[in-house]
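Take a sample.
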Amino acid sequence: MDYNHKAHSVYLLTYHIVFVTKYRRPVITNEIGNYMKNHAAYLCGRFDGEMLSAETDRDHIHMLVSMPPDVAPSKLVTTLKTQLSKEVRSLYREEIEKQLWGDAFWSSSYFIATTGTTVLENVKHYIESQHTEEHKRKYEKTGKYSKKKGQ
């Protein structure tokens, strides 16, 4: 990765971010996931950042983003969660209301980690492998998520 330049800074700040749906409900279809990835990339651009990679599964989204140092990670997370929820609920209301009720789309929690340049490609590969046949969910719903036997 090349370093980014602004008027008074040179930087390389990347974050691995994960949001899960409320109650881990499987509401993210391929169409909704594609929309979320594109809209999240647009929102990152509004912060003068860049979406490096993104992938969804039925109940979560992984994103790898590069941001300038003047963007607080908490502000980025708040904006992404709020705007993605608002737009997705507006465009796909009927599909979402089958699984979720009320105004919440995302769980109130989230995951964020900084990534170093030495592991950046590994994180990117991991994110891009989220929606493949090899990466089937290793959990089944039994009231709680528990590991499948033999895996």
In short: The CA atoms of residues 36 and 42 lie 10 Å apart. Confidence is low (pLDDT under 50) at residues 138-147.
